[in-house]
Amino acid sequence: MKSNIFIYLFFFSFFVNAQQIAILKYQGGGDWYANPTALPNLITYTNTYTKTSIDKEPQTVSLNDNALFNYPIIFITGHGNIFFNSEDSETLRNYLTSGGFLHISDNYGLDKYIRRELKKVFPTSELQEIPLNHPIYNQTFSFPKGLPKIHEHNKKKPQGFGLFHNGRLVLFYDYESDLNDGWEDSPVHNNPKETREKALKMGANIIEYAFKH
To answer: CA 118, CA 69: separation in Å to the nearest integer?
Structure first.
């Protein structure tokens, strides 16, 4: 019964607020607020090139707020610790299995913490590398080689990981890519225009995929 209530809340909220997205304010002390210009820039780009009509200002939501179910896609980023208590884990699981979508962008330093916390959300599931022929790489923009590399840290290749529920991709995690940095205002990281364009195109694909699935 409880899961049915969450499904109802999600789909009711989705049709009312389908053109809003949010960043997740999480516990643990990590900088969930990192890269403040990233999502507004991505929204502008996505609205321009994929015919969405997303509110220009992203919202902020926490896992103890029913407003979570207003948003078809939420974002997590940061450099440090993230923590989900048991209620947070249950709420995020209900959100994702009811039709929501989560994009996580490792801003260098988040990886070991987010992997630990995701095991609380889906204890029996493992992050899987998303194959290059998956639709998330083939929306308005095509990425036949997968995630673009935006920033270099450990000379590792960028990888896109995901979690599936009943065959549906409910979570996409960009690792060693730093997509979020590529969405920021150009003076912040002095990324070349071509690099920022790749990041924005991939971000637009993620939003477009989430809205369609």
So the answer is: 19
